[in-house]
Design goal:
With 95 residues, this protein is mostly helical. 73% of the residues lie in helices and 0% in strands.
Length: 95
């Protein structure tokens, strides 16, 4: 059960990252930058575990993950969910 004081953006990021990590682990095809995607997803999970992360670091990880996954269409929905979760942090910062 999530702490009632937890930032819903952090919970959403944690959920999206966990989902994409599972999808990537289950994806049967190897691709050249898979390790980069796995490492950056682990970094995002660690950031989410520590509370509200730094937006610039989130965006950097997102770019690395997107570049690493490339055009693996089977992972596109999970990647979109992670991007949307990261965007919520930027929206709050800009507003």
């Amino acid at each position: 059960m999530a702490d009632s004081d937890e930032d819903p953006r952090v919970a959403g990021l944690r959920t999206a990252v966990a989902r994409l990590r599972r999808e990537l682990a289950a994806h049967p095809v190897e691709f050249p930058d898979r390790g980069i995607a796995e490492d950056e997803l682990a970094a995002l999970a660690a950031m989410a575990a520590g509370g509200p992360p730094e937006t610039s670091r989130l965006r950097r990880s997102l770019l690395l993950i997107a570049g690493a996954i490339g055009s693996v269409s089977a992972l596109s929905r999970g990647l979109t969910e992670v991007r949307e979760a990261v965007d919520l942090f930027a929206q709050r910062q800009e507003g």
